[in-house]
Design brief:
The complex is a heterodimer of chains A (about 230) and B (about 525). Chain A is built from eight helices and ten strands. Chain A is of the alpha/beta class. Chain A has one domain: Rossmann fold (3-Layer(aba) Sandwich). Chain A is globular. Chain B has about 525 residues and is mainly alpha-helical. Classes of the chains: A alpha/beta (about 230), B mainly alpha (about 525). The interface between A and B is large, with 36 and 37 residues.
Chain lengths: ~230, ~525
């Protein structure tokens, strides 16, 4: 379970996140939806331990800066994080060894799934941006994290990879992982989400659950535009 | 005012305005000016103590070597990408606009002269030793800066021309490479022929070679040397001749561009795109990997290691693929600069050489892989103790620091004529400065990473490094004043600096041990 309590993050005088609290339960997919500059990436980076913040973030009860929490976390950054001079295979070996894991073949399965099987000997710098993004995904998932956070994961991916990724979201959910996805594309979240938090100006403007009752009154898209282009409808 | 002139003046005006709008930049500029003022003051203070100046021809020979080196290094880019006269906004906005291509070329060249002058800025800090050793005036130093700027300008322009003429034809490219290599070989053979006449006085012979008519008429370094020699001797004929030859060469290059390939736009796009990618990557916190265009994969896989030590093995693998055995090209160039400097300063002893070496080290230490690692998420995400991750990520720097120190100070030992304990302690002091500067980088990342602008970071970096280095230097001066000596006064100074630097570096790293735990990886 991922638990965020009263997280506030400032960049100098700019308030990027203001007193954010939410949880993502086991087997739950939560979406952070919002326009550019809403503060989605900031909260994602705070969860990943890449930013200092006020408040508390825990993963299965462990503080997000602890080694126990880091073992549980998978993070897919917005910009692909690959090393120019490592081959595709070496990226996965690096992560596996750094996390002190045996090679159980899962890395190879991920490469095949994201159509990188024939690129094993390609260097990071020789990959297109889309392929780098796929490799970044494989690196984040190879150690089988229990809490996975995705920052704009669809950007730059081809249709096949998007299909596989959506399938991966469902599998992670079925496997009991806590999944948090940040995006500004409403279309990309489809129907697999459990809860969506709409962010504007560093705060949650609304929270919607994927239940027939809530969706009947107003669709996610209608709610989003009523908030971003009209008055808030919390 | 036409559009291109408007563009040049508006950019210049906005650059000056940004100094006022961003006080940090203004402070940075004021500090730089103050530092230049300090070098002038320090140089003039030394004047009364050292009235016997060395032969200015030595300095001019050194300047010619620097000009030639810069010209050749930049011109060589023409075999890969072409010159970087134009940026991506020029490509996107100017190239499709209804301008005559020659006007756009002139716009690019004028812009390039400005950038080249900025690149020569570091020479302004060399006033103290130049004035003390050669009696150089500030006016003459500005002439040397102008010469440097022109060498950079011609290097860029020739690179553009080489690319323009040879990029589409491998045979032409091979011929151009042969000419390029022959040009270098002729200069080296000619210089060697002088040295072989009297190997005991190699420096004097090299200076004589540089001052010979044949060398002074060699493009482009020779012409700029002629210009500098004229300025030093107030010889108008030489000044006019040197600048005149440069002017004719520039006109010839423009003529060749116009006659052979008037449509030069395509030839500069590749470099503009590469530069833009580097700028974008830098903005997103990605340090471009200085890898060769064609990386030789070699043995793949790690095959060993676990946990935090994977960073060390990864760095070794990355270095192998970058063709960096232990030292990178920049470090080797810096090492060569220090050794050449020691040739000219051999009568002044080790101190000026060590100061110059440390000054250059100040800028080169931050290029290690540790800093690149801090910009990727993995070092923060790995479930390993932060101190262990930091030390393993820094581990590759130690062998490089040792080899670099030996590579510099063993030749300097022979040139200057130190004794062996002095040389060994000098090497240790050099290594201690590497560790000190690395620790300084870590402190900077720990406290201010991502929360300040580039100008602020650079300013803080300078101040922090000076603060960290100050205790060792002050203690060495105090020890010398107190008359405490081990082996010799110089050896004692190096010993004190080494111990002090090591203690400060280790303490700094220990205090920053949790930096990876409380990171601020922010590119905004």
């Amino acid at each position: 379970m991922l638990k965020i309590e009263h997280v506030t993050k400032r960049y100098g005088k700019t308030l990027a996140n203001n007193d954010i609290s939410f949880t993502v339960g086991e087997g739950q997919i939560a979406i952070l939806l919002g326009p550019n500059g809403a503060g989605k990436s900031t909260i994602i980076k705070c969860i990943a331990g890449l930013l200092r913040f006020q408040g508390s973030i825990t993963l299965n009860g462990f503080d997000n800066k602890s080694l126990e929490a880091k073992r549980l976390l998978g993070y897919i950054p917005e910009m692909p994080a690959v090393y120019d001079l490592l081959t595709v295979s070496e990226h996965l070996e690096f992560i596996r060894r750094a996390y002190r894991m045996e090679d159980d073949g899962y890395g190879d399965a991920l490469l095949e799934r994201f159509e990188l099987g024939d690129k094993r000997q390609k260097l990071g710098k020789e990959l297109s941006k889309g392929m780098q993004q796929k490799l970044s995904l494989c690196c984040a998932l190879v150690h089988k994290p229990r809490v996975v956070i995705f920052d704009e994961p669809m950007v730059g991916l081809d249709p096949h990879a998007i299909k596989e990724l959506k399938e991966m979201f469902r599998e992670l959910k079925a496997d009991g992982a806590s999944v948090l996805i940040s995006t500004h594309m409403i279309d990309s979240v489809e129907d697999y989400w459990d809860v969506t938090h709409i962010m504007t100006n560093g705060e949650f403007a609304a929270t919607k659950h994927n239940t027939p009752d809530e969706l009947q009154s107003q669709s996610l898209e209608e709610l989003f535009f009523s908030i971003t282009e009209g008055g808030a409808n919390k | 005012m036409n559009a291109l002139a408007f563009l040049i003046f508006t950019r210049l005006k906005n650059t000056l305005k940004s100094l006022v709008r961003q006080p940090v930049r203004l402070i940075y500029a004021v500090i730089l000016v103050a530092l230049i003022g300090f070098t002038i003051f320090a140089g003039n203070q030394e004047e009364s103590k050292a009235p016997q100046y060395r032969d200015i021809a030595e300095l001019i020979a050194g300047a010619m070597a620097l000009y030639t080196l810069m010209f050749l290094l930049l011109a060589r880019n023409g075999f890969a990408n072409g010159g970087s006269i134009f940026a991506m906004p020029d490509v996107n906005l100017l190239f499709p606009a209804p301008f005559v291509q020659r006007d756009v070329l002139f716009y690019g060249l004028i812009k390039q002269v400005g950038s080249s002058l900025l690149l020569g800025f570091f020479l302004l800090f060399q006033y103290t030793w130049m004035h003390t050793a050669y009696g150089v005036s500030y006016g003459f130093l500005l002439i040397l800066v102008l010469g440097y700027a022109l060498a950079v300008f011609f290097g860029q322009f020739v690179a553009m021309l080489i690319y323009s003429l040879t990029s589409a034809d491998e045979r032409k490219k091979k011929r151009a490479k042969v000419i390029y290599a022959a040009y270098i070989a002729l200069i080296l053979i000619y210089a060697a022929s002088f040295v072989l006449k009297d190997t005991a006085n190699a420096v004097s012979q090299l200076v004589a070679a540089a001052g010979s008519p044949l060398m002074l008429f060699t493009p482009v370094g020779g012409w700029l040397g002629l210009f500098a020699a004229g300025a030093a001797a107030s010889d108008v004929m030489k000044i006019v001749l040197g600048l005149g030859l440069c002017g004719i060469f520039a006109a010839l290059l423009i003529l060749i561009v116009e006659k052979t390939n008037s449509d030069f736009y395509e030839d500069v796009i590749k470099t503009a795109e590469v530069s833009q990618s580097a700028i974008n990557a830098s903005k997103q916190g990605v340090v471009a990997e200085s890898a060769p265009a064609h990386v030789k994969l070699g043995k793949t896989g790690f095959g060993r290691g676990a946990g935090a030590e994977m960073f060390y093995y990864k760095h070794r693998l990355e270095n192998r693929r970058s063709r960096i055995l232990i030292l990178d090209t920049i470090s080797l160039i810096w090492a060569a600069c220090v050794i050449i400097f020691s040739l000219f300063m051999r009568e002044s002893g080790i101190i000026p050489v060590f100061v110059m070496a440390t000054y250059l080290q100040f800028f080169s230490v931050s290029l290690g892989r540790f800093n690149k690692e801090l910009l990727k998420p993995y070092i923060y995400l790995l479930p390993e103790p932060p101190l262990s991750k930091m030390l393993h990520a820094l581990r590759e720097s130690l062998p490089s620091a040792i080899v670099e120190a030996v590579l510099i100070f063993v030749p300097v030992y022979f040139i200057i004529g130190m004794n062996v304990p002095e040389m060994l302690l000098c090497i240790l002091a050099r290594i201690s400065f590497t560790l000190l500067f690395i620790a300084g980088n870590v402190i900077l990342s720990r406290i201010w990473s991502g929360s300040a602008s580039k100008a602020v970071i650079m300013l803080l970096y300078m101040v922090l490094m000076l603060l960290l280095a100050a205790p060792g230097v002050i203690l060495a001066i105090v020890t010398a004043a107190a008359g405490l000596t081990v082996f010799s006064g110089i050896a004692t100074g190096f010993l004190v600096i080494t111990i002090c630097n090591l203690l400060i570096a280790l303490l700094s790293l220990f205090l920053c041990r949790n930096m990876l735990q409380y990171a601020e990886l922010n590119y905004q």
